[in-house]
UniProtKB/TrEMBL annotation:
Name of the protein described by the UniProt record: ABC transporter substrate-binding protein
CDD domains associated with the record: PBP2_HisX_like (cd13641)
Higher taxonomy: Bacteria, Pseudomonadati, Pseudomonadota, Gammaproteobacteria, Oceanospirillales
Gene3D superfamilies per record: Dipeptide-binding Protein, Domain 3, Glycine betaine-binding periplasmic protein, domain 2
One Gene Ontology term of the molecular function aspect: transmembrane transporter activity
Domain ABC-type glycine betaine transport system substrate-binding residues, every copy: 29-309
Source organism per UniProt: Marinomonas profundimaris
Signal peptide (UniProt feature, chain positions): 1-22
InterPro entries the record matches: ABC_Gly_betaine_transp_sub-bd
UniProt keyword Nucleotide-binding, yes or no: no
Recorded GO CC terms: ATP-binding cassette (ABC) transporter complex
Pfam families given in the database record: OpuAC
Alphabetical list of SUPFAM superfamilies matching this protein: Periplasmic binding protein-like II
UniProt KW keywords: Signal
Length: 331
């Protein structure tokens, strides 16, 4: 076939555009946060973006509040894959208003989940135990290892923010009048240990916990319904405040957990930004992954390979078919 000289510039331009589009994802940094779920997500994002979109994504160490503040003040890192935004909501919202930051999507699509929980096998035996009235009705089942006259409620470790919320809700529900005593487990490991020990022995347990966590990935638990729904205003103005004198009963509202990017990144890397807008994990998925990480003493990178190999239906829903094929080949 003879090619007319006048067509050569058009063909060369077309070839250049194709190659340019294939490599139009540039270099940027993703914060590798210092807790398991965030580190896993960061490694997943890096692998998918580098292998599926031909980006040059670099992981750099990060932490919750310092990373958010650094993104606002210095424009680095470009991406925080899992930020619990309640802790610095005002600063983040101002960063968005000043066109320094952008909310890309939800890392945890359900939001972080908190509540008072009982084992599922208790609810199977006593269906009413899915409600606080049912728990109170069967209060004698919750043996207190420190008292023969009080029932056990396991609270949040001293010094944690959830110690304040759990204490206020314990008081608002008047659980002390029902014979319950709040037990300080001493640490996060201590709290997990009390639940694990009870579950392994098929015993009753009642207390505060949160998700996603390895514990709720291993053990089937039921969040106790207070019958009130979540009153966000009450929660923010009183339940979370140490000096609130008259707390009211409310369920915990979900804690927003977002992927945050800088505004310059969002404008510079639209393909990558759109990926972050679609990428998200349910609490059930993340709890199961965290349990796997704990059982296998795995870091974020090892867990990333496990996730991509074991959950293809999940991550393939975030990307196009051709991108999925590239990722599959890279695995």
């Amino acid at each position: 076939m003879k090619i007319l000289p006048s067509l050569l510039p058009v063909m060369l331009l077309s070839a250049f555009s194709t190659n340019s589009n294939a490599a139009d994802c540039g270099s940027f940094s993703i914060a590798d946060m210092n807790w398991n779920s965030a580190s896993l997500i960061a490694h997943v994002d890096q692998f998918i973006l580098n292998n599926g979109y031909q980006c040059d994504a670099e992981l750099i160490p990060g932490d919750s509040v310092p990373t958010g503040i650094s993104m606002i003040e210095k424009g680095k890192p470009d991406v925080a894959p899992e930020l619990w935004t309640n802790s610095i909501k005002d600063a983040l919202d101002k960063g968005v208003a000043d066109k320094r930051l952008r909310y890309a999507g939800k890392s945890l699509v359900d939001g972080g989940e908190e509540g008072f929980w009982v084992p599922a096998y208790l609810v199977k035996q006593y269906p009413e135990m899915a409600t606080i009235e049912g728990v109170i009705k069967h209060a004698e089942l919750f043996i207190n290892p420190e008292s023969d006259t009080k029932h056990a409620f396991y609270g949040c470790p001293a010094g944690w923010t959830c110690q304040i919320t759990a204490q206020h809700l314990f008081n608002a529900l008047k659980l002390d009048e029902q014979g319950f005593e709040m037990i300080d487990p001493g640490s996060g490991a201590g709290l997990a240990g009390t639940l694990s020990k009870a579950y392994d022995r098929h015993k009753a347990w009642f207390g505060y916990y949160w998700s996603p966590t390895p514990v709720l990935g291993k053990y089937e638990m039921v969040k106790v319904d207070f019958g009130t729904g979540a009153d966000v205003d009450e929660y923010r103005s009183c339940t979370t405040q140490p000096d609130c004198a008259s707390p009211k009963v409310t369920m915990y509202p979900p804690s927003p957990v977002h992927t945050i990017t800088t505004e310059s990144f969002a404008q510079r890397e639209p393909q990558a930004f759109n990926y972050f807008a679609k990428r998200g994990f349910t609490n059930q998925q993340m709890s199961a992954l965290l349990a796997w990480m704990e059982d296998n003493q795995a870091d974020g990178e090892t867990a990333m390979y496990h996730f991509l190999e074991a959950y293809p239906d999940t991550w393939k829903a975030w990307v196009s078919n051709d991108v999925a094929e590239k990722i599959q080949k890279a695995l």
